[in-house]
Amino acid sequence: MTYLEFQFTIYPLQPASDILIAELSEIGFESFVEQESGLIAYISEANIDKNSLANLYILSSTEFKIDWTSKLVKQQNWNAEWEKGFKPIIVDNRCMVRGPFHQKSDSDYDIVIEPKMSFGTGHHETTYMMLSHILDNDFNGKTVLDMGCGTGVLAILAEMRGASYIEAIDIDNWCYLNSVENIERNGSNKIKVFEGNSSLLSRRKYDIILANINRNTLLEDIPIYASCLDRNAFLFLSGFYLSDLDMISKKCSAHNLQFEKKLEKNNWVAAKYVF
């Protein structure tokens, strides 16, 4: 499979970079590398829609100057490019997310991730905050769903935190395969990975659902998540901006999910709801 690499030069960098990531995610871009001068974004050549790209709001905004170039890149080259810029991250001084080529840490939770073309290394604010939520909440003996699992990093930490059974689901085949690889890499044995969307959730029940996707998908799927939660269960949502929180919370409230707490990072939000 061949991917397109887009190099965006952005000025001023924020909040334009975050807005661009959100808009590119909506039209099929799968992975992002943030840089001091802008952003690198990847999408399968088969999925590119040049009209949708040209019509992105952020590219026509007069508030920012954004230039971009693109080139073809073979998938097998991704790991080498990623290794050049990937540095381990530490979440709340308790959890390290690192590549297999980094030295093992003495953190409470040491997670090895090789993302390839998948989203979820912990570098993006939403993944970081979801990891933080997992660290701050009781997962011992819980059944968990990681919806839109990407690299599988949230599911892996959930198992490390004591979850008894986890299901990880992603609609993208590459993410499905990558999650399987990372789960094996971390010696996780309580996680089952599925390829698909929320249609797989019929008649399933969980104590905790983690969904780090995007605003529109969350709004569509919140009723399904609510139907899959047992009483006193938790729903953690991210992938949206602070300005979207009221909209998300209103949708949750309509399905008996009550807002409890939020984390904020660079205008991104990760919220906790109780069923």
Automatic annotation (TrEMBL):
A GO cellular component annotation in the UniProt record: ribosome
| CDD domains per UniProt | AdoMet_MTases
Q: Molecular function terms in GO for this entry?
A: methyltransferase activity
List where in the cell it is found: Cytoplasm
Enzyme Commission number: 2.1.1.-
Database matches in Gene3D superfamilies: Vaccinia Virus protein VP39
SUPFAM superfamilies named among the record's database cross-references: S-adenosyl-L-methionine-dependent methyltransferases (SSF53335)
List the catalytic activities from the record: L-lysyl-[protein] + 3 S-adenosyl-L-methionine = N(6),N(6),N(6)-trimethyl-L-lysyl-[protein] + 3 S-adenosyl-L-homocysteine + 3 H(+)
Keywords for the protein's UniProt record, in alphabetical order: Cytoplasm, Methyltransferase, Ribonucleoprotein, Ribosomal protein, S-adenosyl-L-methionine, Transferase
Q: Does the keyword Zinc-finger apply?
A: no
Q: Report the family membership.
A: Belongs to the methyltransferase superfamily. PrmA family.
User: Which PANTHER family does this chain map to?
Assistant: ELECTRON TRANSFER FLAVOPROTEIN BETA SUBUNIT LYSINE METHYLTRANSFERASE
Q: What does this protein do?
A: Methylates ribosomal protein L11.
Q: What is this protein called?
A: Ribosomal protein L11 methyltransferase
Give the species: Croceitalea rosinachiae
